Amino acid sequence: MPCVKHLTAQRQFQAVLHGKVLAATQHFVVHGIPASTPGLVIPPAGTPPDAILFEHLLGVVLPKRCARRAVTRNALRRQIYSVGDDFALALGAWACVVRLRREFDRTLFPSATSQALRCTARKELQALFVLAAKAAAKIDLARRKRVAVPVAPLVP
C-alpha cells in the first residue's frame, strides 16, 4: 500500500488551494494541481531535474470554525490521510488538499470522536476521492491530448 507524502510548506498549500476544485461533497472539498507544477516539489540539493519523481502529495485543512475540538480535527485528519493512502494510485501524480468546509451536525454526532462520526466521515471521504480521481484522470487525459508529439517524416 503506497504512503502519500504530506504537504508541509505554506506556499505548497497556497499553490494547491489556488488550483482546481476536483471534487466536493457535503462536508469536504478537494483542491488539486499536478505534482509536476514548477516549484511545488523541492528536491534535495544536487538532484538533477530529470531524476525528480513526482508522486501523490496530500494536505489537510481543518478550520476550527468547522471542528471546534482538537480531538475531532485529529480524528478527521487521520481518516483523510488513511483514505488518501488508499486512493494514492488512483490519483497519480497530483498534489491535493482536502478542506473541511462545513461542520458535522452536533445533534447527530454529540461525541467528538464517535464511531458514527468516523464511519460517516470515511464513507464521505471515499466518495470524495472517487470523484477526485475521476476528475484528475479527465484533466490528465485532456493535458496529454494538448501536447503534440512531433512525427518524423517518412523517408523512402
UniProtKB/TrEMBL annotation:
Keywords: Endonuclease, Hydrolase, Nuclease, RNA-binding, tRNA processing. Gene3D superfamilies: 3.30.230.10. The keyword tRNA-binding does not apply. SUPFAM superfamilies: Ribosomal protein S5 domain 2-like (SSF54211). It holds the Pfam family Ribonuclease_P. GO terms for molecular function: ribonuclease P activity; tRNA binding. The lineage of its organism: Bacteria, Pseudomonadati, Pseudomonadota, Betaproteobacteria, Burkholderiales. This is Ribonuclease P protein component. InterPro entries: Ribosomal_Su5_D2-typ_SF, Ribsml_uS5_D2-typ_fold_subgr, RNase_P. GO terms for biological process: tRNA processing. The keyword RNA-binding applies. Coiled coil: none annotated.
